[in-house]
Amino acid sequence: MLKREAWLLGIRGVLAIVFGILAVIWPGVTVIALALLFAIFAIVTGIEQIVHAIRPAPGPSNPVTGFADGGGPRAARAVAGVVGLVIGIMALVWPGVTAVVLAIMVGVWAVLTGLADLWLATRQHGGWSLALIGALAIVAGLFIMVRPAAGALAIAWAIGLYAIVSGILLLVAAYQLAHQGSGRGHMAAAH
């Protein structure tokens, strides 16, 4: 189960880095193209969050909630996933959205995703890298929401840099999770 989670985090990290590099290399790209790139990224991330929310939780379930951990982290992932899907679909349906509206959508999405990642970092095995991803997402989201009219160029760079850094941190989290899983196996074999 840990290997699968590490793999999904790794895919999310690679997609974030690719999206970020494209946004930084071609900041003059039209708002429509940026909206489409963002839509794909938000939809894939939303699906990944929903998959984590609905997968069976390890360990005994709470008889009241049915969740092994009280339901909090799974609920946070489900909300972040649904928000990502909705925003991604909106960007696909209305690609001609203005830079200001796109910036506000990206800012709200980043803040919500960051809050979910911070919540998960305090309750699960994500460690410092997941907490840092959450904090970075919140800061980037607030910056983008406060200055939505800064222009498509600045927004593209801010989104791109955020995506690259969060993608790198997601890869670190995936690496840590993969080694955490293999470390347990070696520990169990030694005993």
From TrEMBL:
The chain crosses the membrane at residues 7-26, 32-54, 75-94, 127-146, 152-177. GO terms for cellular component: plasma membrane. Keywords: Membrane, Transmembrane, Transmembrane helix. The keyword Transmembrane applies. The keyword ATP-binding does not apply. This is Membrane protein.
